[in-house]
Specification:
Keywords: Oxidoreductase
Largest sheet: 7 strands, mixed
Protein name: Aldehyde dehydrogenase
Strand content: 15-25%
Helix content: 25-40%
Bound molecules: nicotinamide-adenine-dinucleotide
Number of strands: 20
Organism: Chromohalobacter japonicus
Family: Belongs to the aldehyde dehydrogenase family.
CATH superfamily of the largest domain: Aldehyde Dehydrogenase, Chain A, domain 1
InterPro entries: Ald_DH/histidinol_DH, Ald_DH_C, Ald_DH_CS_CYS, Ald_DH_CS_GLU, Ald_DH_N, Aldehyde_DH_dom
Length: 480
C-alpha cells in the first residue's frame, strides 16, 4: 500500500477512488509526491449520467438566475479559503513558484466573481415583426459541457471555462491533465462546499486517449471545450465532428513582440521577463519571438542576456524566478528543440541546455539569435523558457515576420509613437494584441486564437456566449 497522499475523482457529488492510481512526481526533485485515482470509461459514463440528470432536472437552468449568482459567489469565497493549502499542492506537483500558484487560485476565484455578475444578465431580445406577431430570443444553456484542461495552469484554465458554463446554467464534466491534476480537485471542493447541486460539476483524471476521447465522443456531450496542443485539438475536432458537437478550441501559439526604434527598452525588458520566463515559458501566449528594429537590436540582445543570466533558478517552494519544467518529457523536448536550432545554424546567446547538477527538470533561460525564418525554432511552439530574437528594418517587414507562422494567439508592440503602435497592433494576427506590456488584460478581456491557435473566445463578457445557444420564439397573434 502506498504511503503517498491520495486524490480522488469527483462524480455525482461524491469523491471516488479507482482500481488504478497514477503517480504524480515533484518536478523539482523527480520524486513521487502523491497519487490520484485514474478514471475509467465507466467512471466517465457515470459522470455523464450524473450531469445529464442534473440538466434534465433543471437544477441549474430552471432556478431563478439570482440563485446561480449566489452559488458562483460562494464558490469564489471557498476558493479563497482553500488558496494557501491548494497553492502549495500546485507548486509541488507542477514546479511553478508558490506565489504564482497563489496567484492562480486568486485568478480562479476572480473568474467565479466575474461570471457571477453576469449570471442574472443573460437577456434575450424582442424582434419587431408587426402587430400580428410577438417574437423574442432567449439564450439557453447547451446542456452538458465537457471541458478538457492542460497542465500548465490547471486550476485557472479550469475556472476560466467552468465559471461561465455554470453561470449560463450548464452541467460540466472536467477532464484534468495526466500531469499536474491534483490542485484542480480544490476547485471541486469549493463547488461542493458552496452547495452546488449534485452532478452539476464532475472531475475525472485519466488518460486523454481513453477517458478524454470517450467523453468527447459521448452521445450526451453537448459541447467540448478544449485547451491544449494543436495535434490533440485536431484529433478532438475530428471526434466531435461525428456528432457535430459544438467546440471551443484554445490551442498553442508562437507569439511575437515587435520592438520599434523608439520603444522604451525598460518596458521591453520587463515584458521579456514576464513574457517568456514566467511559468518557465510554459504559457500558450508566451512571448516566444522578439522582433527588434535593427537600430536597437544589439542593445536589446545584451539587456535580455543580462536579464536571463541574472535570474535565480530553483524550486518553486522557494519562489525562484525560474522553476523546473513540468516533466522530464517536457524538459527533453525543449532541450532537443534548442539543440536542433543550433545544429541548423542559429546561435545560442545563453542557456540552451538543462541545469546538469540536479535531478529536477530545470532548463536554463535561453536566448537564440540568427535562426532562419523558416526554421522550427522560429515557426513552432517550444513551451519552455526560450526566446528567439530577430532584427528587422521596416514596419512592413516586422508585421510580415510576426504574422508569418500558422499560429495567431496573441502579439505585442513596443513603441512610444502611438500612431505607429496602434497601426501595427491593428495589423497583427491574433485574438489579443498587447501594447507596451506583455500579458496586459485580465479575466475581463476576451482571449482566443485564429489559425492553428484555435477558435472561440474565453474570458470577458464575450466568453459567456460560448456557453449558450440562441432560441427564437415566434408567436402569431390572432387579429381582433
Ligand atoms: P495536450 O494536448 O497534450 O493535452 C491537453 C489535454 O488533452 C490533457 O488533459 C490530455 O489528457 C487531453 N487529451 C489528450 N488526448 C486526448 C484525446 N484524444 N481526446 C480528449 N482529450 C485528450 O496539451 P498539454 O501538453 O497538456 O498542454 C500544452 C499545450 O496546451 C500547448 O500547446 C499550449 O500552447 C496549449 N495551451 C493553450 C492555451 C490557450 O488558452 N490557448 C492555454 C494553455 C495551454
Amino acid at each position: 500500500m502506498s504511503t503517498l497522499d491520495r486524490y480522488y475523482n469527483y462524480i455525482d457529488g461524491a469523491w471516488q477512488g479507482a482500481d488504478n492510481w497514477m503517480e504524480i512526481l515533484d518536478p523539482a526533485t523527480d520524486e513521487p509526491y502523491a497519487e490520484i485515482a485514474e478514471a475509467s470509461t465507466e467512471d466517465a459514463d457515470a459522470a455523464m449520467a450524473a450531469a445529464r440528470r442534473c440538466v434534465k432536472a433543471g437544477a441549474l437552468s430552471s432556478v431563478r438566475p439570482a440563485q446561480r449568482v449566489t452559488w458562483l459567489l460562494a464558490i469564489a469565497e471557498e476558493i479563497k479559503a482553500l488558496t494557501e493549502e491548494a497553492a502549495l499542492v500546485l507548486c509541488r506537483e507542477n514546479g511553478k513558484p508558490l506565489d504564482v500558484a497563489r496567484g492562480e487560485f486568486e485568478e480562479s476565484a476572480r473568474y467565479f466573481e466575474y461570471y457571477a455578475g453576469m449570471a442574472d444578465k443573460i437577456e434575450g431580445t424582442s424582434i419587431p415583426l408587426g402587430d400580428d406577431y410577438i417574437d423574442f430570443t432567449s439564450y439557453e444553456p447547451l446542456g452538458v459541457s465537457v471541458q478538457i484542461v492542460p497542465w500548465n495552469f490547471p486550476p485557472s484554465i479550469c475556472a476560466r471555462s467552468l465559471a461561465p458554463a455554470l453561470a449560463a446554467g450548464n452541467a460540466v464534466i472536467v477532464k484534468s491533465p495526466e500531469v499536474s491534476p491534483l490542485a484542480m480537485t480544490f476547485l471541486m471542493m469549493a463547488c461542493e462546499r458552496a452547495g452546488l447541486p449534485r452532478g452539476a460539476v464532475n472531475l475525472l483524471c485519466g488518460k486523454g486517449s481513453v477517458v478524454g476521447s470517450h467523453l468527447v465522443k459521448h452521445r450526451d456531450a453537448n459541447q467540448v471545450v478544449f485547451t491544449g496542443s494543436v495535434p490533440t485539438g485536431q484529433r478532438i475536432l475530428r471526434d466531435a465532428a461525428e456528432r457535430a458537437t459544438p467546440s471551443v478550441m484554445e490551442l498553442g501559439g508562437k507569439s511575437a513582440g515587435i520592438v520599434h526604434a523608439e520603444a522604451d527598452i525598460e518596458q521591453v525588458i520587463d515584458s521579456v521577463k514576464n513574457g517568456i520566463f514566467f511559468n518557465a515559458g510554459q504559457v500558450c501566449s508566451a512571448m516566444s519571438r522578439l522582433l527588434v528594429h535593427r537600430s536597437r537590436y544589439e542593445e536589446v540582445v545584451t539587456r535580455a542576456r543580462e536579464l536571463a543570466e541574472g535570474l535565480t533558478i530553483g524550486p518553486g517552494v522557494d519562489n525562484h524566478d525560474l522553476t523546473p519544467l513540468v516533466s522530464r518529457d517536457q524538459l527533453e523536448q525543449v532541450e532537443s528543440m534548442c539543440r536542433r536550432a543550433i545544429e541548423a545554424g542559429a546561435t545560442c546567446v545563453t542557456g540552451g541546455e538543462r541545469v546538469s547538477d540536479t535531478s529536477g527538470y530545470f532548463m536554463r533561460p535561453t536566448l537564440i539569435t540568427g535562426a532562419a525564418v523558416d526554421s522550427a525554432i522560429f515557426q513552432e511552439e517550444v513551451f519552455g523558457p526560450v526566446l528567439v530574437l530577430h532584427p528587422f528594418d521596416t514596419e512592413e517587414e516586422a508585421i510580415e515576420l510576426a504574422n508569418g507562422t500558422e499560429f495567431g494567439l496573441v502579439a505585442g508592440v513596443f513603441d512610444t509613437q502611438l500612431d505607429r503602435a496602434l497601426r501595427t497592433a491593428r495589423r497583427l494576427r491574433g485574438g489579443q494584441v498587447f501594447v507596451n506590456e506583455w500579458f496586459a488584460g485580465g479575466v475581463e478581456t476576451p482571449f482566443g486564437g485564429v489559425g492553428l491557435s484555435g477558435f472561440g473566445r474565453e474570458k470577458g463578457q464575450e466568453a459567456l456566449y460560448s456557453y449558450v445557444q440562441t432560441r427564437n420564439i415566434a408567436v402569431r397573434i390572432k387579429s381582433a
